[in-house]
């Protein structure tokens, strides 16, 4: 299957992308991973992207599109892929359609993870990270530490990252509504959007997503 995963910040896209890709036996292609890999390997695209980033400028869509194209052309993606973080806007969605058309491929589904805005704020603004080890993550509501402000694992101080503050989260949501959400209407016009609730236990959401994707595939 060839799938695009969309949803607001805090919808659990990263977690579900890994789980769904493993279940469907297709590669998980994340924009963040693409940038990190190209920059660390010092590819021409990586050098180009870094030149913009070093100047504090946004990386042009054309560079992101070329990175995605290179990754989708690798052998492990011949049987399908799950795109996470790409496309981010309608221009990128149109470019993706063009790339797939040249290979005589098409998307099977666009999975939209739906979550109320207040829940997004609650999920992200409630995160607390250990200063000693950023892999130690807690949540004031869903997974609180035994002692407030103290990491259960190493005893380090827990803190809230600047980009997890409520004001920053709401700004990120506004960017999502303005730039990325329009691709849902773009793909709805093609009959590709499958919307599921991203509320509930992680396993339940994965099961819900797989059932919806397989149903969509069977109906095509």
From TrEMBL:
The protein's matches in CDD domains, at most eight in alphabetical order, are given as: ADK
Top EC class per UniProt?
Answer: transferase
Q: What is its main location?
A: cytoplasm
Offer an example of a GO molecular function term for this protein.
AMP kinase activity
Give me any GO biological process, just one: AMP salvage
Subcellular location per UniProt equals: Cytoplasm
Q: Which residues bind AMP?
A: 31, 36, 57-59, 85-88, 92, 161, 172
Q: Is the keyword Chloroplast in the record? A: no
- Region feature (NMP): 30-59
Q: Where does ATP bind?
A: 10-15, 127, 137-138, 200
The EC number(s) this enzyme carries: 2.7.4.3
Give one Pfam hit by family name.
ADK_lid
Catalysed conversion reaction: AMP + ATP = 2 ADP
Q: Which UniProt keywords apply?
A: ATP-binding, Cytoplasm, Kinase, Nucleotide biosynthesis, Nucleotide-binding, Transferase
Pull one GO CC term from this UniProt entry. Answer: cytoplasm
Provide the Adenylate kinase active site lid domain boundaries: 127-163
Q: Which InterPro entries match?
A: Adenyl_kin_sub, Adenylat/UMP-CMP_kin, Adenylat_kinase_CS, Adenylate_kinase_lid-dom, P-loop_NTPase
User: According to its UniProt entry, what is the function of this protein?
Assistant: Catalyzes the reversible transfer of the terminal phosphate group between ATP and AMP. Plays an important role in cellular energy homeostasis and in adenine nucleotide metabolism.
The domain section of the record reads: Consists of three domains, a large central CORE domain and two small peripheral domains, NMPbind and LID, which undergo movements during catalysis. The LID domain closes over the site of phosphoryl transfer upon ATP binding. Assembling and dissambling the active center during each catalytic cycle provides an effective means to prevent ATP hydrolysis.
Query: Which family is it part of?
Result: Belongs to the adenylate kinase family.
HAMAP family, A to Z: Adenylate_kinase_Adk
Q: Which NCBIfam families match?
A: adk, PRK00279.1-2, PRK00279.1-3, PRK14527.1
User: Oligomeric state and partners?
Assistant: Monomer.
Q: What is this protein called?
A: Adenylate kinase
Read off the lineage from the record.
Bacteria, Bacillati, Actinomycetota, Actinomycetes, Kitasatosporales
């Amino acid at each position: 299957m060839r799938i695009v995963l969309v949803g607001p910040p805090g919808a659990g896209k990263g977690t579900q992308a890994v789980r769904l890709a493993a279940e469907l036996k297709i590669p998980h292609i994340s924009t963040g991973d693409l940038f990190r890999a190209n920059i660390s390997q010092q590819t021409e695209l990586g050098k180009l992207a870094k030149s913009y980033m070093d100047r504090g400028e946004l990386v042009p869509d054309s560079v992101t599109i070329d990175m995605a194209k290179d990754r989708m052309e690798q052998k492990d993606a011949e049987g399908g892929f799950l795109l996470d973080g790409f496309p981010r806007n309608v221009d990128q969605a149109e470019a993706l359609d063009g790339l797939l058309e040249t290979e005589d491929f098409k998307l099977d589904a666009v999975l939209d993870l739906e979550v109320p805005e207040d829940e997004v704020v609650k999920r992200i603004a409630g995160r607390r990270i250990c200063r000693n080890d950023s892999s130690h993550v807690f949540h004031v509501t869903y997974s609180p530490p035994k002692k407030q402000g103290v990491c259960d694992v190493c005893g380090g101080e827990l803190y809230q990252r600047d980009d997890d503050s409520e004001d920053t989260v709401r700004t990120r949501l506004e960017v999502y509504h303005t730039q990325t959400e329009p691709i849902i209407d773009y793909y709805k016009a093609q009959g590709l959007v499958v919307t599921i609730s991203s509320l509930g236990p992680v396993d339940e959401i994965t099961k819900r997503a797989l059932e919806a994707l397989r149903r969509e595939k069977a109906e095509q």
